Amino acid sequence: MRVPKKNNPAISALENRLTLGSRGFSLIELLIVVAIILIIAAIAIPNLIRARIAANEAAAGTSVRTITTAAVIYSTTYANGYPSDLTVLGPPPGGQATCDQADLIDPILTIAPFQKSGYTYSYAGSTPVPGAGGCTTPGFNAYLVTATPIVPNLTGTRSFCSDEPGVIHFNTDGSVISSEGACIALPTLQ
Fold first, then answer.
1. What is the pTM of this model?
2. Count of domains observed in the chain
């Protein structure tokens, strides 16, 4: 049995529309949508890059502080002065931590190429401690730790440094900080 069609104007309009076929989008409509997306991207991408740079710089400052704290802990724990390099602060390949592998910081910072969150870290000791007890690597009376952006103005705009007083300094142009004197002359990180 067949149900007779009623004369409903809404159903008639829908049927007419479906029978005519879908027209799709015109080229003009598609170009307008693409232009809007490009405008939004042009606004959002620089903000995204600035946010990434700020996050990388915050992580670099924190990592320099972590390395500085680990160097002080190493000095007081092992009576060997400050560590000779970043690898001494890393974990041992197996077993107990010693003055040669103190296991004080994350392995990401203690394994070459010493990079994390868009920054390259370096650590250099100066003035060796004579005859430290039981350590194969002599410690130092002073050190300089630095963090430099891998790609200046893309991964970071500032470089950071610290030495044995533990104060973190920064350089606004992102260049390598080459000495303790140059580090101390820079503004301090608040």
1. 0.76
2. 1
